[in-house]
């Protein structure tokens, strides 16, 4: 194609930018909390070239990583660079797109057959002093956390055998271990899943493979103190469809969902499968935890179908956004049982991008935050992101360790404005809730947008931002982000990144 498609995925707030800004000494308005000293990293899909197919979409975009640094002198710096993947470098050399449909190598230009086609555009993962840009269709790329220069594809020093690694890792704050998995671990449409544990030193300690009930989009998973939990939802891949030039994903509402549960330090032969409802789908989980009776609770932002139109419509599912029903939903199982059905309870409103304090990962927790849509918005929302509409309501929920959590706080945006996913920054005082840091995008005119980083008191989100940074350049919506404290970045000085 000679130009970007004029669809929702490439116009308005989703219009490709292709710039690598380097902005220093930005003014911080308001009172920046002392704890907010460090860097906020974001993963942004931004295609360098128009796609080969008209029906391409946001998530195919080349990965960019940005770093917003809050400095000791009260200013902020913002830099953003492409992740120089093998795919990006091949297309840059050719001056055009060479890779075809989303996650379908059978539609690529013959000259790039066999070239690593991941775009590394979903999550910046920080662990053991390394920054990895991850996307679930391949191995991550390592970048320098200070300069954002690409170091290269990363396989834990040759130890990782899986061809893929999730963009949604889980880190146990108590042990310092990183838990992850890779689905389609040995190739397109495979049922093989690799379950991996990385020590606090960054070394891959264990990799085990098992078969999922079917090849599913396994976008996220969770750990509890004693278990690893693998949700399976019926968005599926088929090798014959791929070879015929079709889409990687179709949603199959007639199929059951499943939750696989195994001891997190156990053997994959111990995995037990609990059956969930037919046709449902979740992209992101808030947490998993065990109660005093040993029951295992799995809290996810669950919908009655896949949220992405570019997956639903090729599957023959035609419905408007208003017809997608969702809620923060709890699945409860007894991990000591041999399987059975999940017990499902609605515990919160519809929405996505849930966040909790990192120290409570896999533990009982009282508070969480998530994004939602404001039903009382007096005007149009911001049309942006892979779903097509940005979330415009930030919610706080308390009582997450009870059967009936409650919404206890809210921050609403005006029309034509949207939140990007927040990250949580802990407070020095453990009795306080810490801070949420995120970017807000707002359309202020015809193809004119304002982008600001906000710092919000996590204990009083309704009060709005206590500090803001205006970022004077055009930005594309992010996917996920990560917070790295300044002390951890300072520890890199004099060492290899």
UniProtKB/TrEMBL annotation:
Example of a GO MF term: carotenoid dioxygenase activity
EC number annotated for this UniProt entry: 1.13.11.-
Cofactor, how bound (note): Binds 1 Fe(2+) ion per subunit.
Keywords of the record: Dioxygenase, Iron, Metal-binding, Oxidoreductase
Cofactor annotation: Fe(2+)
InterPro entries reported in the protein's UniProt record: Carotenoid_Oase
Enzyme class: oxidoreductase
Binding site residues for Fe cation: 168, 219, 284, 480
Pfam families: RPE65
Gene Ontology biological-process entries: carotene catabolic process
This protein's record includes keyword Transcription regulation: no
Similarity comment: family membership: Belongs to the carotenoid oxygenase family.
Protein name per Swiss-Prot or TrEMBL: Dioxygenase
Organism: Novosphingobium aromaticivorans (strain ATCC 700278 / DSM 12444 / CCUG 56034 / CIP 105152 / NBRC 16084 / F199)
Organism taxonomic ancestry: Bacteria, Pseudomonadati, Pseudomonadota, Alphaproteobacteria, Sphingomonadales
């Amino acid at each position: 194609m000679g130009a970007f498609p004029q669809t929702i995925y490439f116009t308005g707030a989703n219009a490709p930018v292709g710039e690598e800004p380097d902005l220093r000494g930005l003014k911080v308005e308001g009172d920046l909390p002392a704890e907010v000293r460090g860097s906020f990293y974001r993963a942004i899909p931004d295609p360098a070239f128009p796609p080969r197919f008209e029906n391409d979409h946001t998530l195919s975009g080349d990965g960019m990583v940005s770093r917003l640094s809050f400095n000791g002198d009260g200013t902020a710096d913002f830099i953003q660079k492409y992740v120089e993947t093998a795919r990006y470098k091949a297309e840059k050399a050719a001056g055009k797109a060479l890779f075809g449909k989303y996650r379908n190598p059978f539609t690529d230009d013959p000259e790039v057959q066999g070239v690593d086609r991941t775009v590394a555009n979903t999550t910046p993962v920080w662990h053991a002093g390394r920054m990895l840009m991850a996307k679930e269709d391949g191995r991550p790329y390592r970048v320098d956390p200070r300069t954002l220069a690409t170091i290269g594809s990363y396989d834990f020093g040759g130890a990782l055998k899986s061809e893929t690694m999730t963009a949604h890792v889980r880190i146990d704050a108590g042990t310092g271990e990183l838990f992850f998995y890779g689905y389609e671990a040995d190739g397109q449409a495979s049922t093989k899943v690799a379950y991996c544990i990385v020590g606090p030193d960054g070394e891959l300690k264990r990799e085990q493979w098992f078969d999922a009930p079917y090849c599913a989009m396994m976008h996220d998973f969770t750990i509890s103190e004693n278990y690893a939990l693998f949700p399976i939802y019926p968005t599926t891949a088929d090798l014959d469809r791929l070879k015929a030039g079709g889409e990687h994903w179709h949603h199959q509402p007639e199929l059951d969902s499943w939750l696989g549960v195994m001891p997190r330090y156990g053997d994959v032969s111990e995995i037990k499968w609990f059956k969930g409802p037919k046709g449902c789908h979740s992209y992101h989980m808030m947490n998993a935890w065990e109660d005093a009776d040993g029951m295992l609770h799995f809290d996810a932002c669950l919908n009655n179908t896949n949220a992405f139109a570019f997956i639903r419509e090729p599957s023959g599912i035609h419905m408007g956004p208003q017809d997608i029903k969702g809620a923060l939903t709890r699945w409860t199982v007894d991990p000591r049982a041999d399987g059975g059905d999940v017990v499902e309870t609605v515990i919160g409103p519809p929405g996505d991008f849930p966040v909790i304090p990192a120290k409570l990962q896999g533990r009982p927790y009282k508070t969480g935050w998530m994004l939602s849509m404001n039903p009382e918005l007096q005007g149009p929302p911001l049309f942006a992101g892979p779903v097509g509409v940005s979330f415009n309501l930030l919610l706080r929920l308390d009582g997450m360790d009870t059967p009936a959590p409650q919404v206890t706080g809210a921050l609403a945006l005006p029309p034509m404005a949207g939140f990007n996913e927040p990250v949580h920054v802990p407070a020095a005082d453990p009795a306080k809730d810490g801070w949420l840091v995120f970017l807000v995008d707002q359309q202020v005119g015809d193809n004119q947008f304002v982008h600001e980083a906000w710092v919000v008191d996590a204990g009083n989100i309704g009060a709005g931002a206590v500090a803001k940074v205006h970022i004077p350049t055009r930005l594309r919506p992010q996917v996920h982000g990560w917070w790295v404290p300044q002390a951890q970045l300072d520890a890199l000085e004099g060492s290899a990144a």
